[in-house]
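Table S5 (text form). Sequence records supplied for joint modeling of the two-component complex.
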Amino acid sequence: MTLIGEFLIYCGHALRAMFRRPWQLREFVQQAWFISSVSIAPAALVSIPFGAVIALQLGSLVRQLGAQSFTGAASVLAVVREAGPIVTALIIAGAGGSAICADLGARKIREELDAMRVLGIDPVSRLVVPRVAASMLVAVLLNGIVSVVGVSGGYLFNVVMQGGTPGAYLASFQALGQLPDLISGEIKALVFGLVAALVATYLGLNAKGGPKGVGDAVNQSVVVTFMLLFALNFVMTAIYFQVVPQKGS
Amino acid sequence: MGYADYPNMGVEVRVEGLTKSFGHVNVWSDVSLTLPAGEISVLLGPSGTGKSVFLKTLVGLLRPDRGSVWIAQSDLTKLKERDLYEIRKLFGVLFQDGALFGSMNIYDNVAFPLREHTRKSETQIKGIVSEKLDMVGLIGAESKLPGEISGGMRKRAGLARALVLEPQIVLFDEPDSGLDPVRTAYLNQLIVDLNQQLDATFLIVTHDINTARTVPDNIGLIYHGHLAMFGPREMLLSSKEPVVRQFLNAQRIGPIGMTEEKDADSLAAEAATGVRLPPLPAIPLQLRPSDFRARRAERVPGQWCRENGVTPPEGSFQ
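The corresponding structure-token record, covering 567 residues in total, follows.
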């Protein structure tokens, strides 16, 4: 209980520091580059099979119903609405968050953070804020990549392997999906990036007990962010369905 | 608040009734002492008595349960986080392993505080960094990463970084741990020379009695959760107080046991065997700056003993 309270206080501190100068632009760019470099490849590689699996699941069923022209619609809906945010959450927590947590944890046990505080520099504004901002930016971009790569994967699978027609696949994009789907996906990704980075930095800054402590912190950070992000995904999807009217209903 | 505007002569640190515990474990309680401005003090204590915790409490990295740390007119324990970052600019701290930033080379490490806190140009920064690196004898190692140099070099680089903002108070966390005797001797000489040049207030936390006997102006001893004694070097080195005497002379006979303090029974048993404490060894001369010009805080050898009517052990100050 006290842990949750401390974490919330920490979040408040970090968020306030975000809007206070001096802003560490250099560190932000470096971190954004670093997080992208560890997350883009896995995100793309995970999303191709995701799109393909959806096409596979739907393909035969849809053919039996004679609604082949809707494969594209289903694929877009599934990838943009669900797969995008979920894959983003997995990658941001598993690749980005764990790297951030390990980095800060190692600095903590080497007393680098204490040294920084003694030199009159708040590690939260110097190290945490740029990482949180970078993680949010990269999450939004990742969601875009996952959507594009996932839909392309579905397209390839449908057209090349299942003998669907390219025109039908593309033409039905707008049948079920709509622009707010993409926007909600991006908002989800933004929140995921924020939460994953806050959890990872918090656990990293509080690592203790030598190298093993860092390992434990990274492990905890991945597990906790997974649970948090999946729960958040559910809540935000529920809100989205309440707020935005759906096509075809 | 302008703490940085203090004249360059060190700042007095007054600790009053400081108490710290982690959960139910009491680290030390009711520690009161004054680090005189511009003097070198050593805080000694057996391993695990919370010397490092004391040091971290002094700079506000840890909050004590009770008590105050007065620096100028501010009680550091009551300051808000933001004011704390401001007052810490008075401090330079040398951490045990140097605590260098692993991702930066030595030059960037030393330049880091200047880049963060001042608007100096890169040329000015280069001048200051070279001067400090020269002070600690690290010219030529600027482009090395902390992982590529020895522990002693890391310590000296950490020291250069701690000194770069011209601190008024310099704290050393076990400067001699993990160094061989020769390097320790060099580092001790460096500390004395730095004190002569900077006139800053120095506090060294260590359990190396050789350092404690020869380097400081004042010695303090933390033992069994409290400050056993704090005062001028000669006072502690001539003291017959059992704990002080045992620790400063590295003897087995006395109240300090292998794990913690000995209980009454084993002390009585020890007394019954009739072993007598060996006589106090002679008080060595204090280490002098390498150019033999006096430090401002330096006192004449034997001055304290004469003023307080204490006869120093045979052969002292020779």
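Note: Chain A has a mean pLDDT of 86.
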